[in-house]
Amino acid sequence: MFRFICILLGYGIGCLQSAYLVGKIVGHVDLRQYGSGNLGTTNALRVLGKKAGAITFICDILKSVVGFLLCKILFKDIPLAGLYGCVGVILGHDFPFYLGFKGGKGIACMIGLVLCLSITTWYLPAFAFGIGIICIAATRYVSLGSISFAVMIPVVLYKVGFPLEGTIIAICLATLALYQHRANISRLLAGNENKLGIKRIEKNI
Fold this sequence. Notes:
Mean pLDDT: 91
Shape: globular
Number of domains: 1
Radius of gyration: 16 Å
Distance between the termini: 44 Å
Largest sheet: none
Helix content: 55-70%
Number of strands: 0
Order of helices and strands: HHHHHHHHHH
Low-confidence stretches: none
């Protein structure tokens, strides 16, 4: 029962779509109609600039932190409660009901989850962030760094002996991240993926 409650609470928090709200408030635009059309940090950065991108990034991270802590407080004797809260946040972020279930890709929310788990597993952010940052720095492909980061999370959790249920959840989240990046993966394979620093502001017709 706690799993359902945590996911439901997290979903409500995740549905507060940062990129959509920042686009409307800062740029007076619907980011779904500009750039890649994705409601995430990278599209906010490319369309609206560094300030909007930073605000979106921080808010998406905080959503996971709030979801994690809220569920930990409500179910303080259940170790995985916070993790399930973050699962809900990521689902709400990726599939907000009021936006036709089309949101972001969940990477910033996963970063928030990793930061929460780092309280007891400090190796997780060290390895996951390290791999992601190296990929972005070497290739300037944000999508490649994001994918690498997401895939590393269950690998590190498994290596450090994290509970099996939690590791399986991490595998599911990594799989979801891969699915959400399927268009990016196709462009990477075709050699025409957008690189960091290239600003896309064209409107999608």
